[in-house]
Each structure stands twice: as C-alpha cells, then as structure tokens.
Design a protein that fits this description.
Layout: E1 3-8, H1 37-44, E2 54-57, H2 62-71, E3 77-80, H3 87-95, E4 103-108, E5 112-113, H4 116-131, E6 135-140, E7 151-158, E8 161-168, H5 173-182, E9 185-195, H6 196-206, H7 208-219, E10 222-224, E11 227-229, H8 232-235, H9 243-248, E12 254-259, E13 263-264, H10 269-275, E14 284-286, E15 289-292, E16 298-301, E17 306-309, E18 314-318, E19 323-327, H11 334-344, E20 354-357, E21 360-368, E22 371-378, E23 386-388, E24 392-400, E25 403-407, E26 410-414, E27 419-422, E28 428-431, E29 438-446, E30 455-458
Parallel strand pairs: 1-2, 1-4, 2-3, 3-11, 6-12, 14-16, 15-17, 16-18
Antiparallel strand pairs: 4-9, 5-13, 6-9, 7-8, 7-9, 8-12, 10-11, 18-19, 20-21, 21-22, 22-29, 23-30, 24-27, 24-29, 25-26, 25-28
Helix pairs in contact: 3-6, 3-7, 6-7
Amino acid sequence: MNICPVILAGGSGTRLWPLSRSSHPKQFLSLAGVHSMLQSTLLRVSGLSESEGITICNEEHRFFVAEQLREIGKLGTIILEPAARNTAPALALAALSVDPDSILLVLPADHIIKNEEAFIAAIAHALPSAEDGKLVTLGIVPTEAHMGYGYIHRGEAVGGGFTVLDFVEKPSLEKAQGYINAGSYYWNSGIFLFKASQYLKELELYSPKIYQVCSAAVKTMSSDLDFLRPNKEIFESCPTDSIDYAVLEKTSNAIVIPMEASWSDVGSWASLWSINEKDESGNVIRGDVIEHKSKNSYLRSENKLIAAVGVNDLIVVETKDAVLVADRNSVDQVKLVIQQLKDAGRTEIDVNREVFRPWGKYDSLNAEEGYQVKLITVNPGAKLSLQKHHHRSEHWIVVAGSAEVTRDGEIFPLLVNESTYIPLGSIHSLKNPGKIPLKLIEVQSGGYLGEDDIVRFEDIYGRLKN
C-alpha cells in the first residue's frame, strides 16, 4: 500500500521564546539532535515509504522548508496554505493532491519521538485499519496529568484499537487527573493515518463547505518554483476547523490506537529539559556554558558564554538579542512576557536579530537613528533581487568570499577588502559567484531603514515582497 507522509509545518508558536519566534518557529530549529524538528519528522518515516511526501506550510516559511528538505534529500511536494484555516482544510489540500488510494500518514512537524521503534510499530499496527477505511489517530498513553495536552476519550475495542467517543480540549489539573484515573483517555498526538479518498468522503459528508472550497482551490492550483499554490481567493472563504471536530468526532469510522514512544510536542522549556539527556547534576547544557554546583537546569547559549553558579531549577536561554531566565516550574508564564512584548510593540517576539532569506541571511549588528550596520551572508551561487530603495543608500565591504555587483547596468567583481557604494535610488543586485559563502558588511544611511523599502525588478525566488 502506498503511504504518503503529510507534514504539517505551518505553526508559528512562541512558547519556546526567545529561540522560537513567529518568523523562525521551533519546527525549523535543532532542539534534540543535529537535524531540525521538520527534518527529523521526515527522516523518522523514511523507511515506511518511498514517497518523499507532502509538506504543508505558509508563505512566510516556504524557503525554510525547501532548504531544510533539500539538505536531507526529501524535497517532495510543498503546498503553500494560502491562509491559516486549521488542520481539516490543510489535510483536504493534501488528500486532493495525491492518488485517492494513497494512505496519508499525517505528522505535525514540531514533535519529538525518542522511541522510534515503538512509533514505527504503532504505524504498522494502525495500517490495516486505515486500509479498511478507518480514520486512525494515535493516542499517547499518558504518563501524568498534563494540562498542556488535549485528550482523546476512547470507547469500545474495535479493529486493533478503540472507538473515539470525543476529543477534549486542554483540561484543568483536576480534570486531567480524573482522566488519568479513569484509564480511558489518551493524549491527542495529532498523528493520523487514513486513505485519502476516505477522508475526502467523510469531509464532504460532515463538513461540505470545507470540501467544496478546497476542491475548487486545488482545481485552479498553480506551480511556483518548488511550491504548489492553491487558489488564494477561493481558499480564503474556507471555514476554519480542526480534523478532530470537522470529521473525527462526527464519524463512526474513527478509531484511536494507543502508542507509548516517549513522545513530546515540546510545548515548553520544561518539557525540552525533561526529554534531553542530562549530566550527573540533572543539567541540560547546550552551547558555550560553564556551570558550577548547579542542578536540574536547562542552560543554552547561542552566542555568548553563560556562567551559572549555584543555581537550581532554572531555564537560561541566550540569543543574540534576548536572554530568558525563568524558574523551570514557572515556564508556562513565559506567555505573559510574550503578551508584554506584543503590547509594547517589540520586534523581538517576531524576528531574530539574525534573519534568514532564500539567498542566505543577515545579522543586524547595530542600528541608530539614520544608520544601520548589517553582516550579510550570501550562499554560493545565490543572488539578491534586482532592486532599489527610496530612502537609503548603502556601502558594501567584502570580508570573505567574492561578490558580483550589479549597479545601474554595470556589472563588476568585488573581492575581500574591496568596497563599493550604492546611491539612493540606484538599481542594484548582489551575487555570490564563488564556492564559499560571501560575507560583507553593509552600512545603510538614510531617513528610513525599514525592510519594506525595497522595490524589486527581478527575483529568482519569486518574491513579491520581503
């Protein structure tokens, strides 16, 4: 039977702030190994299918997805969700894009599963039911009364699993403990297995508006570089609903199969501490960290040295523009800090100081009124768009690699320690013709230095805006 992995990579959560931000969320980060969570998700199922699968993401993150999938040789199909409409419509887009007999293995891109053998065994156990037309969801056997997870209430035994009575939103601690005591509830993993045609049949029956809109949007879907774009104008009229409520709670064909595989949705710094390997003092240490007589802490440095002396049960996370220090037992209150950042209009909630682009990245080293200094890194063979600015001029100084500069129709090389000037209004571009990353210092001067002061004339990445 043809299994097609479907990876849901559209999230933009900030529960792991300051590392995870809306412009660079956790699924693109390496939190428990060398690969990002997105890459690990696809590699986890590589032995189950010859298909490279379908990844569903949003417009903002499309180049993250494409580049990370290329790195592991699993580019597959990338569908750009025109608007956030939850999981039921997203899965309809996937189901409408494959052979109707395909078995879709639906996986969130931001989960960690440490016991991969148990995970593969659970999929194998669920496969016959999916082939028989059941909509299968994997329920995680709970290990504690957790308020951060949704729950699945199971019914009678059937088809190697149990019927689904209902889905329960994140409960209070008292209710969660009641679920544990009852023994008939599982954590909702968001992992599903079903035949594409069966899902569409049930969707049309129980949520016809979603089915109709998604069908129309896929019929007029366009191709753009590595991406498939469903019709945006049509899709934006789609209702918002999860697969749980749009289909699974209404159908008699849903079953839940229990799984024990050391699963975590990494919903907080405390959960990340709990699943990572620790030293003899219970510390998880990442990056440049020195600790002395500290216990049960998560200490992560991205850039600067962290020295922790005699601290217990702390979360310390350092990035280029922010440092989080929190009691490990109070990390759920990080959301209050996020709200304060929103209320204050702070950019740290959305973007990192280091910003990734399809051609490479830039790091904002310093900014004052009237000027800004950036370190720009351009990947080998990559090229910035042909563009101009209305409000700023730029100086470029190459510090590593070599550049090919286009300025008002003139094309010329720029080598290490050489510089050039881009006047305000000049039509210009930058390319790395070499085999190593190009690094240059850019000094911007002008009355307005926002990233939206770009008028593009040509762009090999198909961007209409930043």
